[in-house]
Amino acid sequence: MEKFKWDDSEDIGIALSENHPGVDPLKVRFTDLHQWVIDLEEFEDDPMISTEGKLEAIQMAWLEEFREEQGA
Predict the structure, then answer these.
(1) H helices of the chain, where?
(2) CATH of the domain at 57
(3) For the range 68-71, what are the long-range contacts, defined as Cβ-Cβ under 8 Å and sequence gap of 24 or more?
């Protein structure tokens, strides 16, 4: 199983979409998003090195998945 790092925003976004179906990523607080990322089984990186930019990239990747699921 491939392990994710903070820079794997696309892979993390897909995993979050699968783990939290129907959740609008734009309504998730960054504190919750951070926790959900580090809770992923596939995630293996230092939780302390996340940045707002990395979380935004993950959120946007997840949003793309969310919109595809919604048929938008």
Answers:
(1) 9-19, 30-39, 52-70
(2) 1.10.10.600
(3) 69/17, 69/21, 69/22
The verdict on residue 62 lying in a domain is yes
Both structure tokens of 60: 């946007």
Domain assignment of residue 65, yes or no: yes
Q: How many domains does the chain have?
A: 1
pTM: 0.93
Host domain of residue 62: 9-70
- Let me know how long the chain is: 72
DSSP-assigned letter for residue 16: H
Question: Which residues pair with residue 43 across a beta bridge?
Answer: 4
Tokens 């990322």, located at residue: 37
Q: Name the nearest CA neighbour of 20 among 35, 5, 8.
A: 35
Write out pLDDT tens, residues 37-56: 999 999 999 999 999 999 99
